[in-house]
């Protein structure tokens, strides 16, 4: 079944992989980005800031991918604010919101009281972005009228990693593969994300993926 997918913050590297993967399966993709030029694989590109998007802009889509990212203290708030804005304008509609997450919020114990970002060895350099992703997830858990899914990548999220076509679908806990690795490429993450859009089996849930 051909689906209509909107990718928001489409100029980022994860977004471009998601667009390419969705297009390879024959889906209709509309990319929304801030740049004047379309440097995404999408044939249809709309220049519009994420925070200017309206309910009408996203009506008629089967799914909206929130690929908003930030890498500086000044921009970290973009991550939770993007989730809030998109969840708000999609509330009460059947349009699914699929959010690109970060590994720091995964739990490392069965009681779900300690996250990766809270462990002693978690690098200080990533604490800010991890906190921003945590805030986004915390908000989504309260968004009862939005059909959201939050997808955590593995700890080692590789922009240039190979597309193996294989991944392990996990849940709330930090998961290692059979080689004791927490790793996934952007390309394999995109496969998992588009699979989730097609299957729609984890509404209002957080899931995670790691290379098989």
Describe this structure in words.
By secondary structure, this protein is of the alpha/beta class. The chain has a single domain, classed as Rossmann fold. Helix content is 25%, strand content 22%. It contains 4 helices and 10 strands; from the N terminus they run E-H-E-E-E-H-E-H-E-E-E-E-H-E. It has an 8-stranded mixed sheet, sandwiched between helices. Strands 7-9 form a two-stranded parallel sheet. It is globular.
Please write out the topology.
Layout: E1 4-8, H1 13-24, E2 28-33, E3 44-47, E4 63-66, H2 78-90, E5 96-100, H3 127-140, E6 147-152, E7 156-158, E8 167-170, E9 183-185, H4 186-199, E10 205-211
Parallel strand pairs: 1-2, 1-4, 2-3, 4-5, 5-6, 6-10, 7-9
Antiparallel strand pairs: 8-10
Helix pairs in contact: 1-4, 2-3
Unreliable parts: none
Q: CATH superfamily, called what?
A: NAD(P)-binding Rossmann-like Domain
Determine the mean pLDDT: 97
According to CATH, the fold-level topology is: Rossmann fold
Question: Roughly how many Å is the radius of gyration?
Answer: 16 Å
Strand order of the largest sheet: 3-2-1-4-5-6-10-8
Protein name: NAD(P)H-binding protein
GO molecular function: oxidoreductase activity, acting on the CH-NH group of donors, NAD or NADP as acceptor
Pfam family, one: NAD_binding_10
InterPro entries: NAD(P)-bd_dom, NAD(P)-bd_dom_sf, Polyketide_Oxido-like
